[in-house]
Design a protein that fits this description.
Elements (H helix, E strand, L loop, with lengths): L23 H9 L4 E2 L4 E5 L12 E4 L4 E2 L2 E2 L5 E3 L12 E4 L7 E3 L8 E2 L3 E6 L7 H9 L1 H10 L10 H5 L2 E2 L5 H35 L14 H7 L4 H9 L3 E3 H4 E5 L13 E4 L4 E2 L2 E2 L5 E3 L1 H11 L6 E4 L7 E3 L6 E3 L3 E6 L6 H9 L1 H10 L10 H4 L3 E3 L3 H30 L4
Parallel strand pairs: 3-9, 14-20
Antiparallel strand pairs: 1-11, 2-10, 3-6, 4-5, 7-8, 7-10, 12-22, 13-21, 14-17, 15-16, 18-19, 18-21
């Protein structure tokens, strides 16, 4: 155990008592950055506002800390709000989380222009006439130098946060290859935007095809839904009932895939390195993320891999905690899945795992899952209920087109994330 002794005289005016503030490595970094410009010298920093928001109402996306994903913000899951004295965004602004998971940064793109931010988030906008490239600044804030300073300046007990004044004091260094870093970071951001566009195209093609196949388009003129149906489905969303009524040809998930549950290894088998133990928080519809990652020994992996290792072209689906998150395994993964995840081993040659994952992530799939979820404290799906989820069967051509769009979206996203990490790593002082 390492013990740091700090004299009272060294506490200064802040009287900070949290150990991280006096981390020797962070103190050395602070000293090395003396004389550098502060973020507040050339950037206007605003805190967002707490506003009434609703997932189905409002003209603008309303960004909170929970909307941040690896590589940016998931606008598709944002609540909506009306711009009544809200703090709005423009292209090339930078958004950074101030509360909860502090320090996540996003360079605002065309899709995010006009969005609003909550009180959990800061907006950074270059002061007029300030010669600063927002792409470089976003990369710097995500680099070791930006994140280390934010880590030291954040405070709190159960929920961490950073103050506006402290963020202004973050030191910024402009390295010699800053223009190259800005270009590469912008390219990475553009790849991620293109990935999101392709995934949205796939979702739109799915919804439109479901509505127009088998005469579903006739429902656009109107239809009736009984109160009992609304109560049964706990849903008042017209689009859900339109899609559900339009679908004439479906298969159950257990008819086209083998559903294999994960396992629990126990915390005593966790270790600092080794083979990944995938938990619910590591699964997103965009792929695997290294978040609060746990590891097990290679020996234990060898014992468990036959039953619990994710294989190429399988679909991973979360069933506990946050049920209904689906991702495609693009290649065999040296990992073991936890009990909160199931593997869907797709058996039909006519139905791509990419199409199944998109169907599960769609409004139609998510509403089915929501209706099947049980549990008062921790939400969960039973294996038998997962098998009852209905997958719409469209024409082979349409399903293949949807699968190709999803597959291309995933490839672009991987390229964008890989490039972004390389760029951030190349910032050296």
């Amino acid at each position: 155990m390492i013990v740091l002794e700090i004299k009272r005289s060294k506490l200064g005016k802040l009287r900070r008592l949290d150990p991280e503030y006096y981390n020797p490595e962070l103190l050395r970094l602070e000293k090395s950055l003396e004389g550098a410009l502060s973020l507040g010298d050339f950037v206007d920093i605003r805190v967002g506002r707490t506003m009434n928001s609703d997932i189905k109402k409002g003209e603008f996306h309303y960004i909170k800390t929970g909307d941040f994903k690896e590589g940016g913000v998931d606008l598709g899951q944002c609540f909506r709000a009306d711009n009544i004295n809200g703090v709005d965004l423009k292209v090339s602004d930078i958004v950074i989380t101030r509360k909860g998971s502090v320090g996540n940064a996003w360079l605002v793109n065309v899709q995010g222009g006009g969005a609003l931010i909550s009180s959990e988030v800061f907006r950074l906008r270059a002061i007029e006439d300030a010669l600063i490239d927002s792409s470089y600044l976003a990369a710097y804030l995500e680099s070791f130098y930006g994140q280390a300073q934010i880590l030291r300046l954040q405070s709190g007990m159960s929920i961490m946060s950073i103050s506006q004044a402290d963020l202004r004091n973050v030191k910024v260094v402009f390295v010699g290859n800053k223009d190259e870093i800005a270009r590469e970071y912008k390219l990475a951001s553009d790849l991620l935007v293109e990935s999101d566009k392709l995934n949205k195209l796939a979702e739109e093609l799915f919804n439109d095809s479901v509505l127009f196949e088998k005469g579903g388009s006739n429902l656009r003129s109107g239809f009736k839904v009984g109160i009992s149906e609304i109560k049964k489905n706990d849903n008042f969303d017209a689009q859900f009932f339109i899609i559900r009524s339009a679908i004439k040809n479906v298969v159950l998930l257990n008819e086209i895939s083998e559903i294999c549950s994960g396992t629990e290894v126990g915390v005593t088998n966790y270790q600092d390195g080794g083979v990944q133990f995938m938990r619910v928080g590591n699964i997103t519809k965009c792929g695997f993320i290294n978040k609060s990652q746990q590891y097990i020994s290679k020996q234990l992996f060898q014992e468990l891999k036959e039953r619990y290792q994710p294989k190429q072209n399988e679909v991973l689906l979360t069933k506990d905690g946050t049920p209904g998150v689906a991702m495609v395994v693009t290649g065999d993964i040296d990992a073991i899945i936890s009990g909160g995840i199931v593997r869907l081993k797709v058996g039909s040659s006519n139905i791509s795992p990419y199409y199944i994952a998109l169907s599960l992530s769609s409004k139609y799939g998510q509403e089915q899952i929501r209706a099947l979820v049980g549990g008062s404290n921790i939400k969960h799906l039973k294996i038998k209920d997962i098998g009852r989820i209905k997958i719409p069967i469209l024409s082979i051509e349409i399903m293949e087109e949807i699968a190709k769009l999803v597959q291309k979206s995933i490839k672009l996203r991987k390229r964008g994330l890989r490039l972004k990490k390389e760029v951030i790593k190349n910032i050296r002082i």
